[in-house]
Amino acid sequence: MTVAWWQLDLQVPAEAAAAVEAQLLEAGADAITFLEQDASEALFVAGELWQNSHCQALFAADAHAEADLRALIERAAWQQYGASLQAVADQDWVSRTQAQFPARQFGKLWVVPSWDRAPEDAPYELHLDPGQAFGTGAHPTTSRCLHFLESHIRGGECVIDYGCGSGILAIAALLLGAKIAYGVDTDPQALKVAMVNAERNGVIEQFQLSLPEQNPLPQADILVANILAGPLLQLAATLAALTKPGGWIALSGILHSQEAGIQEAYAPYFNFAMPQHEEDWSLLYGQRKSGD
């Protein structure tokens, strides 16, 4: 194997992350990535780090000797972070990334990146590349929501995607037959990404995007909210008010251990079906009660 890179792996607590990153940059790291270490913190909050992160740093082998990097580990006392160093062969990094995001099927719907194709007989195709906003279908929280929409869209519905990210759920609803969709997100960049994705899929005329405080929303036949458990608890009354009596709600971004708390908060407004599970994640869905 021809060594092209040295990969340094560290398990870094949040309070040490900035200092470790600065040391890595000073040492000449070509790339530094912080990844989740604890599945209970699997959803990222912009501008923040997980309490415990898996830090990966790449050093070009033609510029950094193994002995020098091992000396760096000792000098910086990174043994406390479980430091490990391994050789990495040169790779086609673009192809490697693309291989992680092939076309995926969700019932009748296929989510298709630009470098792959759906089968010729695919009933519905949603074209979307991984980018700056959450939502590609790869994560179980999004996957469960797509399956929910595929089974509940009958045609002509008004749908609200609360915490829309890339817009994948609202766009999917429109492709499956919804009449109009509203995308809401606190991140202006996510709204821009969602608009581009809606244009790419030919549904921009039926898709309205806004920040939560910008425009009043109508009541929806179907509301999906794929966000964190904390905001879901805070938004219980708000999301209930945005769902028509008899309409459906789907709540995702919930770990199994958080199910009971979410159900309790929404129980005054909704009759829930049995939760759906995928890996560590739960989808809660149910129908809006009348008169609450």
Descriptive report:
The chain has 292 residues and is an alpha/beta fold. It has two domains: 3-91, Alpha-Beta Plaits (2-Layer Sandwich), CATH 3.30.70.260; 100-288, Vaccinia Virus protein VP39 (Rossmann fold, 3-Layer(aba) Sandwich). 29% of the residues lie in helices and 31% in strands. It contains nine helices and 15 strands. Strands 8, 9, 10, 11, 12, 13, 14 and 15 form an eight-stranded mixed β-sheet that branches. A four-stranded antiparallel β-sheet has the order 2-3-1-4. It has a three-stranded mixed β-sheet with strand order 5-6-7. β5 and β6 (109-112) form a beta hairpin. The radius of gyration is 22 Å and the shape is elongated. Mean pLDDT is 87; it is low at 39-48.
Distance between the termini: 66 Å
Contiguous low-pLDDT stretches (5 residues minimum) are 39-48
Mean pLDDT: 87
Q: Write down the CATH topology of the largest domain.
A: Rossmann fold
| CA-based gyration radius | 22 Å
Helix content: 25-40%
Please give the largest β-sheet: 8 strands, mixed
SSE string, helix = H, strand = E?
EHEEHEHEEEHEHEHEEHHEHEEE
Number of helices: 9
Number of domains: 2
CATH superfamily of the largest domain: Vaccinia Virus protein VP39
Basic shape: elongated
CATH architectural arrangement of the largest domain: 3-Layer(aba) Sandwich
CATH class wording of the largest domain: Alpha Beta
The computed structural class is alpha/beta
